[in-house]
User: Fold this.
Amino acid sequence: MVVGLVLVALMLRAFVRRDGWADVEESADSVEHAHLRRVAEAGISFLSPGAIRLAEKERGGDGIFCGDPAPAREFWRRFAAASASVERDPAGALEELRILPGLLEEALGGAEPGAGAAEGRSRKEDGR
Assistant:
């Protein structure tokens, strides 16, 4: 009889851990993680058109990048780090994404203020 009670108690404990109340904290963390990941993915997508323009500018007609290459290198380093960390550390990716628009503008030469935002607005206006 005692063995049967111990077995039932162990089965209930396993059930509670697997499907029950023990997962409440884990699910809250996973929901927050998923939300941060989606926000970080949207930020990367928002910067992508500017990144494409920067890549085209770097390739240029004759393969020579005119201007200071340091901001472009810093942008690419941080853009790659943010892109790589979206899945495992979305909060860290969001920190990087706060800096990237300014770096992109500087890398593009500053002649295009709001490089990423301007393109997003013009596409919205074209759709109207």
